[in-house]
Amino acid sequence: MDILALNCGSSSVKYQLFDWDKMEVIAKGMVERVIIGDSFIIHEVPGRETHREESECPDHQVAINLIIKTLTSEAHGVLSDINNISAVGHRVVHGGEKFTCSVLIDEQVLDAVKEVQHLAPLHNPPNIAGIEAAQALLPHVPHVAIFDTAFHQTMPEHAYLYPLPYDWYENFGVRRYGFHGTSHLYVSKRAAVLLGKPASECNIVTMHIGNGVSHAAIKNGISVDTSMGLTPLEGAVMGTRCGDIDPAIPAFMMQKENLSAKEIDSILNKKSGVLGITGRFTDRRDVIEHADKGDRLCKLALDIEAYRLKKYIGSYMAAVGRLDAVVFTAGVGEMGWPIRERAIEGLEQLGIHLDKERNKGAMTRKRETLITTDDSPVKVYVIPTDEELVFTEDVVAILNGTYTDHMQFEYTFARADFVRK
Predict the structure, then answer these.
(1) More confidently predicted of 325 and 121
(2) Catalytic entry in 2, 106, 111, 148
(3) Considering only CA atoms, which of 297, 233, 230, 107 is closest in space to residue 286?
(4) How far is residue 307's CA from residue 339's CA, in Å, rounded to a whole number?
(5) Are residues 136 and 212 in the same domain?
(6) pLDDT in tens, 176-192
(7) Catalytic annotation present for 148
(8) What's the domain range around 301?
């Protein structure tokens, strides 16, 4: 059984084809510059050279058609027939309060996703476009929605409500939702395995650090708080997003610079964070390289990001009580050892004892690594995330009628004998 996972962004479509019977990825890739012109596909198959092909994709349906054509092509494909695809899993960024787990997509589900697209105007519209495009091209297979927000729907009311007029929540849904849910789910389950305890007995702080950054406080296996809020703008310092700031700053700068609401929103989302401080970089590899060469603003950006990470670790320790582990994941979390070191140093009084050599050696996206000392009361792990595997397992379980919410469902990666391929 081959499962296709799709992640549709505003100008890109990521995909992965997973062979469930062999439990392995058979192809993955991305179509970039969808809608905006000069589109191309990058297609990867294990054991083969990466294939790149330029092909104009004026919309998501053309992009997904290009993916299917590539997957079934004689020269570069891995499928003899499109009908070999058994189901499609779709990433949906925002599910509002309605969806607490993955669901089979029908007309009612798609309408419900459309009803909350105003909560994620940059993300949900392309997610919806991708679903509709894939349904048109693959009308006879099941389509499943996997929601970024679902994992965090276990948060208590006192954690997800803002101290704002209550009718804003009642009338407009203004509350904390959280994102990167599949990533936090995956790495927290894997951390429980490494700790040798049931997930329901583990208290963990998970730190997803890429261009987008979010953290989760996980108590007894469920999310009780997370750093992103109504939108993915709140929380930690990110590549181009500001994260937590004084809420009076936007109004202040709108008056000073005569900016519109749309303009200030664009600055906070696209011109702030690491880019805002350095003035030129979002990739932390560039920031680390130039900080080592003496660039003051790059060093400052690293210090600001690490300081914010350290504060979140401390505050989430207070939220969950006794802490078992901290987990770093995603591109920067998995590869950025200088940022991890800055974030963890000085937390010995909280029971976190960094092993600097282990931390420096954890520079791979293929291995799970302990980076604290053996006797550290709180363990810190670097765990490569695998959101697509969560997609695939949810889809297969829904097809088989065995799926329940993540607190009850037994994922293969939550077993002690799981081996990451």
Answers:
(1) 325
(2) 148
(3) 297
(4) 10
(5) no
(6) 999 999 999 999 999 99
(7) yes
(8) 196-382
